[in-house]
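Re-running the complex after MR caught last week's input typo. The corrected sequence lines follow. Everything else is unchanged.
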Amino acid sequence: MKKERPKQQGLYRQEFEHGSCGIGFVAHLKGKKSHSIIRQGLDILINMAHRGAEGADSKTGDGAGVLIQIPRDFYLIQGYSLPPEGQFGTGLIFFPQDSSDAAECQEILTTIIKEEGVNLIGFREVPRNSSVIGEISRAAEPKILQILLGADVQQADLERKLYIIRKRTEIAIRNSNLKQKSFFYIPSLSTKVLVYKGMLTSIQLGEYFLDLNDERLQSAIALVHSRFSTNTFPSWDLAQPFRMLGHNGEINTIKGNRFWMEARESILQSEKLGDLTRLYPIIEPDKSDSASLDNVLEFLIMSGKSLPYAMSVLIPESINDKNPISPELKAFYKYHSTFLEPWDGPASLIFSDGRYIGGMLDRNGLRPSRYVITTNDLIVMGSEAGVQTFAPEEIREKGRLKPGKMLLVDTEIGKIFYDKELKAELAAEYPYGQWIQQNMVKLEKIETSHKESPDMGDQYDKYITSFNYSLEDTDKIIKEMAATGKEPLGSMGNDVPIAVLSKKPYRLFNYFKQMFAQVTNPPIDPIREELVMTLSGYLGSLQQNLLETTPDHVKMVRFRNPVISNTYFQVVKNLRYKGFSAANLQLHFDAGKGAEGLQDAVEQLCKDAEKAVDEGKNYIILSDRGISENTAPIPSLLAVSAVHHHLIKTRKRMQIDIVVESAEPREVMHFALLFGYGASIINPYMCFAVIDKLIKEKAIQLDYQKAEENYVNAVNKGILKIMSKMGISTLRSYRSSQIFEAVGIHTDIINKYFAGTTSRIGGIGMNEIAEEVLIPHRKAFIQEQQPDILTEGVYSYRKYGEHHAWNPEAVSLLQWSTSTGNYKKFKEYTNRVNADTASPGFIRGLLRIKTNPIPIAEVEPIEKIMKRFVTGAMSYGSISREAHETLAIAMNRIGGRSNTGEGGEDPVRFKPLENGDSVRSAIKQVASGRFGVTTEYLVNADELQIKIAQGAKPGEGGQLPGHKVDKIIAKTRYAIPGITLISPPPHHDIYSIEDLSQLIFDLKNVNPKAKVSVKLVSESGVGTIAAGVTKAGADLITISGYEGGTGASPSSSIKHAGLPLEIGLAETQQTLVMNNLRRKVIIQADGQLKSGRDIIIASLLGAEEFGFSTSALIVLGCVMMRKCHLNTCPVGVATQNPELRKRFRGKADNVVTYFKFLAEEVRELLAELGYRKMDDIIGRFDLLERNPEVNHWKIKNLDLSALITQPTESFDNAMHCCDVQDHKIDHILDKELIAEAEKAISDKQPVLIERSIHNTDRTTGAMLSGKIAMLYGSVGLPDGTIKCRFNGSAGQSFGAFLSPGIELYLEGDSNDYLGKGLSGGRIIVVPPVGSTFEPDKNIIIGNTVLYGATRGEIYISGVAGERFGVRNSGASAVVEGVGNHCCEYMTGGLVVVLGTTGSNFAAGMSGGVAYVFNENGDFDFYCNMGMVELSLVEDHSDINELTKLISKHYQFTKSKKAKMILDDLYKYIPMFIKVIPYDFNKVLQEQKLEEIRKKIADVEIDLEISAS
Amino acid sequence: MTDISGFLKIKRKEAGNRPLNERIGDHSEVEQVLNSEDRMLQAARCMDCGTPYCHWGCPVDNLIPEWNDLLYKGDWKGAYLRLAATNNFPEFTGRICPAPCEHACVLNIIQEPVTIRENEVAIVEKAFTEGYIKPEPPKTRTGKSVAVIGSGPAGMAAADLLNKAGHLVTLFEKDEKAGGLLRFGIPDFKLSKATVDRRLDLMIKEGVIIRTGINIGKDITGKEILEQFDAICIAIGATHPRDLVAEGRDLNGIHFAMDFLSLQNRVNSGHIPASASNINAEGKKVLVIGGGDTGSDCVGTSTRQKAVSITQIEIMPKPPLRRSDNNPWPYFGKILKTSTSHEEGCERYWNLATVKFLGTDNHVTGVEVEDVVWNPINDKYTMLVVRDTRRIIDADLVLLAMGFVHPALEGLLSELELELDQRKNIKVDQTQLTNRQKVFAAGDSVSGATLVVNAIASGRKVAKEIDKFLRKA
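Corrected-run output:
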């Protein structure tokens, strides 16, 4: 058993870990200390136990803790003699288990205490009960002592001294040689707060630390945290809260934030802290993102900043026009944005310094935070409502934190500070606005008369060749972007080798892959939610001490747009504003000297950049203009990153900005990389030259200005998309955040020039990098022959172009062999594709298997093997009905499983066909759009797959344009024909791992028999995510390679996002085995699997099931047209066009043949390996080795040893799934409901059930609904057959998937995801009888209500959180107030809001209608007008509809507001605004016209009949 | 690219052929020309496939989707440049190629391929008429010289590319005019000789030296050539015809197809008067033995010579009308082909073996044939004779069109002692080099008789190898 967190092993890296959590606090507003506060804090934790997680031993928690005020009296009672309050400090200290190491640590600590002039009073044994904790946790349990100390100084000074002591001790011990030094950790050391925490479950916290149960321990605040970590490696120190805060969420920009903080250390000065160098680094190494944020927060506070100030500048709100905050506050944010990049990412934070306690949300506000203030001066805040229960009359106020907003309590003066007041104060402190106005200039506002031409003249050909532009670059990518302002789309995934495997020269850019958010944090929607996003930045650092507030900070040039034209580049270059000056550095190296020349040039560049800083330049310009025969260009990415890292290392990065003038970048990905590694502004002059030429050749019919603008817009949109994939909102925080993984670059290069980037299989070094520049360079300057007109064949196949795995031979041999059932031909096919794979086309082509043959007769039969085969998720909509059903038939015949994809399934298909075949897809997918996800759909599945990401476009949503939504597709997706259907980038009910756990729980409730699977895409850290997903309860995890297919995706996503299957799969296997979690979950692999060999290698790398999509489609006739996104598939596979569908020639028999052949080949290979069963070879990395015969100039330094490392734990731990998950659905409220509703279920007799309910009762009604859907389908029971009345606080997913005939009535409140997937039931929520607060001003239900609802109704007498009605397709709802993003992506249904709304109302709303009571007359400000139109409610039928709903609302809830309106309809109806999408309106009008036409026609027929 | 749904809106439209009655009266080209607008629309049917099987199936790697797109957009010049990038002589292939590209076209899955061949010829003809094609001699000369022996399509392609690369090329031809099979083998009604002359003229203007009437190995020895040139490229074709060994073979009136065809071509060009032609079908009952393209050419030529009757027999079975299961798309479809010559009138029989030639007065009068069947025996199709099916086909002119076996071995090849392969073709390595230093070979003399397009591809390949060789030297 390991005692420490494992370091690097195989592909696993410690930095991949993620945490996620439940948080909360209790405080007495007036600072009255009591033990009950602590008790209540611990109760909050227990009530959120479902948000934490347990490890493989089911006993070890991921971490829990509590922060309280220092209980000085508690120690006095125990007989300690202590200095007076304020002069006394204490804290728990974790010491090594080894006593001599522990003694040494204690020695170091005591010495430093003495040096800082503080008196050590002594150490106190902390009473603990170690028997309650799990095995894994105990193995890592530190020795814990409490230190008591004091000094006769002011409290603030002592507090700082303790901070210095702690930092110094940490550094000293970190730098020591102690073996167990990693055990040493100081949870807190303060005169104000004390933290108890450990690797515990929520429940264990109170049992383990006996102090916490001692009635004498008192505090006025208790801030608690429970952690859900992806892994369960020992980590006592990573438990939260930290010294000042608890965090639920994820900092996406963490790498950049850490780098910038490090870079900043050189210019920081603090009078209060004195010599700062002894405290550096400010950020402790090897800790979590939350810990780093805490480090910085603490540093700012210690330097004298206030809590609200520090929080506001670290995690600022959006300053977009749509955020209704004062200009002064915007100026405050803008001022600070010039020198402090946001810590960006989903965050719900709670923090305290002992006196103040508060909470805040980041600008996106994706994490819930609810609070209650009671009449007894208590405030309780938590991730959920109902974590503490109060009598209705005790409640003074119920609320939630809103995006970007803060709430703070001063327990000393007993006052609650709301966001507005707090921030007004901050904004008023200095004349920020005035400073900005006087000092900052906008780049776009600088007048310039000189226009710089894009024309390159006779240099054009040389440059285009030297920088290796292919015809596809110019004629497909750049042309499309310049002509349309959009990136081109592609389909069918990526089947060309990754850059390092290709024998052809590639730009260095292509060795990097984008990372993206999956599970642990959500991507954002850059189109519909652009209000939080920005690309603006500043140029011309005059970076000074950020701890000082001075107008000099804003002497800067602000730009909106980081990609600039030649004209503006000249402006930047010659800018002399406020004494700015630039250093011009050439990106040139001596072509004759090759790698050495390149190396020297980069070194020189770094030196020159450093010199520029020393000379006081404000920015450096890196330019590759001026190449010649002897002068080759340094790869721009190498140059930018090398300079960036060199300046960080020399602590000179803050003083300067990097501007790039380069011919190299052309695709969005290239720009993203340059920004991601530190560039501020880029001038891609070659692209402009290409555009200029295309216009002159009339290939683009626009004027140059417009085309340039289009191109830049396309780049900008693309960058926003790449940022949003990671959930990052601002380019300023994206800059240098390095959200990439390198594949195929040697670690020497990485360590030297790309520090912090993951690169796990080695690869090219300086020689190859130089050669890849020089090959095309020589072509441009040396070879005499004119270069051929060449299409590189990267996007579509070309002979002698880039190699495609699906080439004409492979496709035709596969079709030939399967259509004729010719196994010999099939072997020809597999020989061909295996040879291609080893050419090498894929990483697995570099591997070979160790053989030890046995007779094939001993190997298990193909029937057993075929059960492991599934087809990939391809929706009916992306592929034709014929193709979809043929796949289902084939998979059902062989005992495999087909997948619905995201598009629902016609219930007709649930019944077997007469000939015994079945067209039912065994796997039903649940994706972010939730299209067609009804209760009936869910209960008709053997497996429910949650699609987190898709290989071809991880982190992105999808869109099915209205013209593709025909009647049948609309029906299966519960939409209206002709209406565009948008799948949002994230699941709006999965922003974190505990949310995923909740969704898994929901699905298990609806259909307990189905396996729940989670589909992930290979990227670095996917193993860690998979561990978290396993802990969240998944039965099966699919790891998809980035190379997977797609119906439509931007070409940059297809090529550049995600990693090859092999890396992600191996990492997953290794990490799960290390955690001993592998036993609980099945691993499935997909991504360009073609042959038996592919299957065998995938299983050796850890997979037990295998997904096939492209190959199965090819068997059905797909010929890799790559036109799926255009609906013109000429073989009827990926099209809805009835004419084209007639061309479909696919046969289920052929698919069956394919899988039989594959299974047969697997048997042959098993026999060769010497194993009888698939189960015996899963995860057997030891049976793989590098094939030395596969080699070429670029791959000679690839090192696959990490990929095929067998984790040492595999000797003890299972390597494949042999266990089942405990889904904890056996003792839930629904079991009682089902029992009581028995008569209703069997005989449709009405029943009434009454119950109290708690936040721990989750997903209420779903299991009952599943039962009903099983028996009665979507029809359900007659209205009101089962009525349930609840009292209390309902947990998450209240009324999820509720079937018709069920009515849930809740008196109290409820948490997030109410009415998720509502399928016909009714939900009513009213405030408790006796409550005194106003329903229309107080929050009663949580976020993300009615997500994916298809039918039913809800009536809420109170306010809802963010995203009410998101992706509603048919339910109707009445509510008395909502947060941001109401009705987002709605495609149908009705929403009535009888109160105020938040921002971004109706974003992406393509169908349905909303009525908003516009009391304040400002609704249009809050509405996103992108897709909808607003009107008064004047139409008769509209008035009727609205009135009817409000009446029903009154009938069910007795709402005062409803009554007020109903009592005076003439007054109030005119105050309503009708919100209706344009498209939807058009469709409705057409429907009406159609009806009228039909009526007229009917009348005419009648007339004719009567006439005759 | 292109019109993404063009193939749905526009039907395949072929230019078609001249009316039958009219065309059999002369030897001019049979195929007609489509107007430019319709031609551009036909290009719109191209789908710019992600995997262009046409391009894969094309021996000269024509970038078909790319020039189809340019053609559709009306950029004829761009289309020509893209076409010329891979094919030296689109005007030949555009006329006579059996178009494996169209067999492989994705639209051919449902038998409605893009008119790729016709588009090709349209582009290159437009390029000639609009003057996009002008003599462009190389700007600099390398000072190296190459002898290309044999001026058929392979030799021409090699000469053209080598010249463009700056080498001084002499193209030798044993016949009186250059062009090889293009000139003497293919009837004018399929490929007018003006087309061949136009290209040769261009090559001459670009600096290729053409020496006709010189049989290397005879008029000039191979050794001399070796001394005079830095590299030699042999492209002498596979001219040795397959013979039919049967009783009566030495009767008069039995000729090899190529002798018959070249004679007509020489008559058409005025090289010899019609009266001097000693093989003529006029008034005769013609029997063509061999069901391939050469046989078909004999049929068309006989029609024009006013034969009384024409019969074509083939020993192999009649190809199916549709692809068989074992001959799927995108491979070349082995299906029954009915050429314009067949349309013009002839009887065709399959599964018919020749037993013996019958004659009177030492002149053939008929051929005894019998039915055969082909049965799979031990996985190999084996011919079996059907008993009691012997019968006689009357014929007083018999043309043997059963293909070619290997190049002429006497003369050059034997003099240079070039190594041959099993089929007696010239043996070359991966760089097209023979067993003799600086002697390369290409075309049918290496591969055996095949398509013109393959010969061009081979000529291109050898030119690139010779260029590499010369640059290294």
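None of the earlier attempt is carried over here. The two ends of chain A are 95 Å apart (CA to CA). The first strand of chain A starts at residue 19 and ends at 28.
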